[in-house]
Structures are given as structure tokens and as C-alpha cells.
Amino acid sequence: MTRILVIDDDRGILRLIERTLQKEGYDVTTVEDPEKLEMDHLNWYQLILLDVMMPGIDGFTLCEKIRDKVDCPILFVTAKSEEKDLMIGLGVGGDDYIIKPFGIGELRARVAAHLRRELREKKHLVTIGEVEISLQAKQIFCKGQRIFLTKSEYAICEYLALNRGQVFSKEQIYEHVFGYDGEADSSAITEHIKNIRAKFQKSEVSPVETVWGIGYRWK
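That's the Stage 0 sporulation protein A homolog sequence above. Prediction below.
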């Protein structure tokens, strides 16, 4: 479960953010007093929401203090909308701003967008059951053994695995892998899937499932 840390001295806003994000399925930790923040646990979180105007230590100072301890996005929640304040926040390591007063929809959308970006850009190793996918090396391993795939086969596997459980038609897969200018038509996906399954079969694993009449998904 995705873990989010919210730091704000306003108890009402803290509860509002907590309830909103919990409804989205996130594991939310709230901190009302920033000086009581447990620094050793910061790397638990995938995203931090941080108020700017707080007693004792302001959000900009706190961000600068913790930025080298965490690699996750830090979003400021603040009423300070002047350009100079935005520049200060970005300069000390903030990733984005949510300006008070904010709407619930905006909060959900901003958080989701940054978490999606984290998945795309920073999650270099994906493990699903007995399959490991190295996004950086563009390689797939099953039970510790590398599965030797063509570039197209790898691209199909990566696309399906990163969207595990979601069903895609042959046309959708083709468009993602080859683009509109690909030389083959979407029926080529059927052959690629067949080859992928044959290569995984050597490890007695079959990660790609056919959803009859619709397309394919990663189990």
C-alpha cells in the first residue's frame, strides 16, 4: 500500500487530507507538530504533503532539512501563492504546490499524478511473483533465470506488467509498442504473445492471460 506523510499544524486541514486520501486507498500518517517528526522513518513514505506556515519550524526549512533523507515527491500545502515563495519552495527541494483553499478533486489529482510519475521514473525493478523486470536494463528474469526476449516482446511484457490486471486489446498494445507508424498490423501482437508464452513456458510460468473477446492482461 502506498504510504503518504502529511505534516500540518492545522488539525482541521490535517483531518480533511487524511480522510480524503484514505478513501483513495492510501496509508496516511499525520503529524501536527513538525518538531516531533520521526526522521528515521521518512524513507517509509512514497509522498510527503508539507504545510509551509508552521510554528517552530516552517515548511521550507523542514523540506531543506529532510530532502537528502528522502527520494519521494514533497508537495507544499500553502496559502502563500506569490512567485517568490514558489521559487523558494522549489529551490529547497519541493516538487509541487497545492494552494489553500484547495478542492478535494485537485488534492486527489495532484497526489495521483506525482505517484504515477514515481512509478514511471524511479521504480527500476518490478517484482511480480516469480518474475522480475529491470526497467533500466530492459531485461526480464523468471525464477532467477533471464528470459531472452526481442525488443518488441520485452516492450509488450513491460506494458502489461506495469498495468497488471488491466485488459488491453491487440490494437492498444500495438499502438503503445509500435506507434501509429508501425509496419505490421495489430494481428502481429498475437504472434508476439505466443512467442512470449513459449519462452516463459521453459520456467513453467505463464504470466500473460487471454481475456477472450477483449485482449490480454498480466496476471
